[in-house]
């Protein structure tokens, strides 16, 4: 459960064990300071140019997968809650993620 945005309670951070080999590899990985190649720049430009998936199509696919797993009602509840929070946030209202 996340604290309210206007709360003085600290946000909970994930606990990562010190002996986690993936975390240790991430921490000790070298920084990639090489400049991008022409091929990498072209690949990035192609990706930015599309094709894009409209949000409605992505949402419909997620809903379909949730239904296939028997979680259609839960998806609808979470999606409706997210839409309400987005609407409140756009109006400048206080957002309470608990409700």
Backbone structural class:
mainly alpha
Helical content class: 40-55%
**What is the count of β-strands?**
0
Q: Shape, please?
A: extended
Low-confidence stretches: none
Alpha-carbon distance between the termini? 11 Å
Outline:
By secondary structure, this protein is mainly α. The chain has helices at residues 21-28, 38-49, 55-68, 72-90. Helix 3 (55-68) runs antiparallel to helix 4.
Description:
The chain has 99 residues and is mainly α. The protein has helices at 21-28, 38-49, 55-68, 72-90. The radius of gyration is 20 Å and the shape is extended. The protein starts with 20 loop residues before the first helix and ends in a 9-residue tail after the last helix.
Write the layout of secondary structure elements.
Blueprint: H1 21-28, H2 38-49, H3 55-68, H4 72-90
Helix pairs in contact: 3-4
Main features:
about 100 residues, mainly alpha, 4 helices
């Amino acid at each position: 459960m996340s604290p309210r945005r206007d709360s003085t309670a600290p946000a909970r951070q994930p606990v990562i064990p010190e002996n986690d080999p993936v975390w240790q590899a991430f921490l000790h990985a070298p920084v990639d300071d090489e400049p991008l190649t022409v091929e990498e720049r072209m690949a990035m430009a192609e990706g930015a140019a599309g094709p894009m998936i409209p949000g409605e199509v992505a949402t419909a696919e997620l809903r379909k997968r949730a239904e296939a797993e028997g979680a259609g009602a839960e998806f609808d509840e979470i999606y409706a809650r997210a839409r309400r929070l987005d609407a409140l946030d756009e109006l400048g209202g206080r957002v309470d993620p608990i409700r």
